[in-house]
Specification:
single chain; mainly alpha; Lyase 2-enoyl-coa Hydratase, Chain  A, domain 2
């Protein structure tokens, strides 16, 4: 993966965990769209999106952007 951060500035395991959460949610939504249709997938994804956007990592991402600093993600 290409990074805009200097090497060693992010904990790669935490970053990998954060990315996997988003990838898994997206994959589940795509599979649901294929199996049950896009409207069902969009409807069901609303609760997933709320959960992800209320996570500690989402809050940290916004706060680090505001403060112009490297985010410290925990995978939670």
């Amino acid at each position: 993966m290409t990074s805009i951060h200097p090497e060693g500035s992010l904990d790669s395991e935490v970053l990998e965990g954060v990315l996997l959460i988003g990838i898994m949610a997206t994959r589940q939504s795509v599979l649901k769209a294929v199996e049950q249709g896009p409207l069902v997938a969009m409807h069901d994804f609303i609760s997933v999106q709320k959960t992800l956007s209320n996570s500690d990592d989402a809050k940290e991402g916004v706060q680090s952007f505001i403060e112009k600093r490297t985010a410290r993600f925990t995978g939670k």
